Amino acid sequence: MGVSQAIPQKRAPGFRRPRLDQETRDAYLMLLPWILGFLIWTAGPMTASAVIALMEWDLLGPAEFVGLGNFVALLRDPLFFKSLSNTLYFVGVGVPAQVLVALLLAMALNLRVGGIGIFRTLFYLPTIIPAVASAILWLFMFNPNYGVVNHMLGGAGASPIFWLQDPATAKLALIFMSMWGVGGQMVILLAGLQGIPAELHDAASVDGAGAWAKFWRITLPMLTPSLFFVLVIGIINSFQVFTSAFILTGGGPKDATLFYMLHLYYKAFQDFQMGYASAMAWVLFLIILTLTMIQFKMANRWVYYEGESKSEGGS
Amino acid sequence: MSEQNRKGRGITRREFVVATGTAMGLMAAGGLLASCGTRGAGKITGPTKITFLSQGAESHQKMYGEMIAAFKEVQPNITVEPIYTAGGAVEIQQKLLTMIAGGTPPDVTWTHTYINNSLAQRNVMLDLKPYLKGDLKETDFFAASIKDFEWQGKLYALPRETTATILLYNRTLFKEAGVSEPEDGWVWDDLVKAAQQLTKGSGQDKIYGTSNWNQAYTGMVRTWLNGGDVLSADRSKYTWNEPAGVAAIKSIADLIHELKAHPSPADLTGTVDLMANGKIAMQPTFSVFTNMRDVKFEWDIAHVPQKTPRTTRVASAGHSILRSSKNTEAAWEWLKFMHGKTGMEIFAKNNFSIAYKPVAEPTYTTGDAPPKNKKIVIEALEYARPEPVAGNWVAAHREFAKALGGIYGVTKDDVKTGLDSIADAVNQAIKEK
């Protein structure tokens, strides 16, 4: 019996609300750990953060109510805009690149060749390496004189690139490094690829469709739900990029990799400006929320679900 | 309520909310009770427990474990419960303030010069001067290390170790190049000339005449040698962008960009210790030589190039008692033990450049272990000075790193422009806590 069916149709005398039956109560009981976890660890801190955002507070002293003062201070902080633009760059360039690389890897790993399971494991492995460990690994790899990246480029005749030391390349280096962790997206896309019915490709082949036509007309549309998912999650995660910059560059050179979360961290846990940092957190939350809502709105135009009919070009 | 009634009765929304609220309330109360339970009960009248926040590297845990066991033998009624956390000054400050804000402050904490000022302004530490009248005296410690933890006439920590910036050099490279070793009376120009003579090779085989001047703290030493400073005498205004500071930093930038006798920050990113690997002829560094224990060449130390009066930089780490501690007497006993002869011998055994003179001085004046001129450390600690720590010094250092990174780095920023670019941010940082 479903939960909705369990609700009695008749109200008890007076204004008493309908009682829940045992099954429904059990269902709520099962949900209780999550509900409590959400209230204590998510809703509670979020509410506290919203209040702190209106305060000036250094953790120890008394909090002073400043209204929207912290939000006004954000607008006067050049590093706020610098960190926001750095983050937008990382999201704008990094997420499409990550999705593209994940898609290419998923397609390659979807081939039916011997030992493919080993390759799938190998390409997923970086995802489970601790972020700090892989960041330190990349620090060595990016060394302009001794690093393997420049060594390989040098073999192709390229001049040494100061990956992490040049403001012009530092963000690109961190985006490049983020490709290392596309294993999660790759697995989702691989699952999406494997969910595409083989009959569709077979039918297209019978009709004389080439590889490109099959990819463009069948694979890609059928994969759009998975692509939509990795895009939404990728954008949310990329807005919160932190560890790589914290370990590799500390936000430098010259603030070129001072991402939003890094600036927030410095404000909260080095400068102890908790009100300011909370205001930053809420601004980021609103940015991500808005972008996610826009993506869901736009999804109607390009995301195809099996059995759904859409006219050419969406809408 | 009968079984039948319980089965037939659902939960109303109101009851659900009340039940959830009650559960949360009970959990919160449990948390509060748990936190209360970590507090002590005042004077030492019997078994007393104190909590001790400290650095959490494996080597530190091992060392403090030994220290706690030794302390237990002389103070069996006091139990020291260590709280280890990874990292250095910044991370310990984060942990400490979070613990205080959370209502579970430790009784004793590890601390560092960089955060002493910030913690002192927050009034969270106990003034230790009144305690230093018995077995342990201020004069037992190097004067510079005591200065490091003073703030407005009060002393907020006892120094564990203290380091002076000295010049570490590779004697083998000097001999091979036929260059005279650094000696008393050396000035900056002598260092530059020697660095040029010692620089040779290219690529991965390159030997640099000097290194490590690109750090903020060594940049400060160079600036002091040039008669300037990063802040005004009353520490109220940023002054590194004044002529003496600009000239000092330019002299370092020239070593990197013009003379190529010093690796650039890019050359130093993600590499092994070039000094210990014999790729650097000389460099200013803290007076801690653990990285030089197994090197395959001869090495020694000298004073940094000097003017009269001599100057260099001192920095210290130590331990503080929290004002909020309910066990200050037990906490003091723990502090006194760590900073007395037995405790300091344990630190010394673990290669710390300890600040307690009765144990430290013999290690710098006797024995055949390198460096040969180890007495220089003692001399340097006499004339060394702390950084002009003010306000939020951690934030100020972030700005210093940003400006110096631009000047010494790939973009080769103009020195004056680079030092000017952080003036507002540093002036703001030194006004903050």
Spatial extent as radius of gyration of chain B: 26 Å
Strand content of chain A: under 5%
User: Beta-sheet strand percentage of chain B?
Assistant: 5-15%
* SSE sequence of chain B, one letter per element: HHEHEHEHHEEEHHEHHHEEEHHHHEHHH
Give a quick account of the main beta sheet of chain A: strands, pairing sense, barrel closure. Answer: 2 strands, antiparallel
Biggest interface: A-B, 46 and 43 residues
Number of strands of chain B: 11
Q: Tell me how many strands of chain A there are.
A: 2
Notes on the structure:
The complex is a heterodimer of chains A (315) and B (433). Chain A is mainly α. Chain A has helices at 3-6, 22-52, 69-75, 78-109, 116-128, 131-141, 148-155, 170-178, 183-194, 198-206, 211-239, 243-248, 260-269, 274-302, and strands spanning 55-56, 64-65. The longest helix of chain B is centred in the N-terminal third of the chain and has 24 residues, at 13-36. Chain B is of the alpha/beta class and 433 residues long. The N and C termini of chain B lie far apart (60 Å). Chain B has helices spanning 3-8, 13-36, 58-74, 89-101, 113-121, 143-148, 171-177, 188-198, 216-225, 243-258, 265-268, 328-338, 341-349, 357-365, 375-383, 393-408, 415-421, 423-429, and strands at residues 48-55, 78-85, 108-112, 150-151, 154-155, 158-170, 208-210, 280-286, 299-302, 313-321, 385-386. Chain B is built from 18 helices and eleven strands. The chains are: A mainly alpha (315), B alpha/beta (433). At the A-B interface, helix 2 and helix 6 of A face helix 2, helix 4, helix 11 and helix 16 of B.
In short:
The complex is a heterodimer of chains A (315) and B (433). By secondary structure, chain A is mainly alpha-helical. Chain A contains 14 helices and 2 strands.
Summarize this structure as a short list of keywords or feature phrases.
heterodimer, A: 315 residues, mainly alpha, two-stranded antiparallel ribbon, 14 helices, 2 strands, 67% helix, disordered N terminus, B: 433 residues, alpha/beta, nine-stranded mixed β-sheet, 18 helices, 11 strands, 44% helix
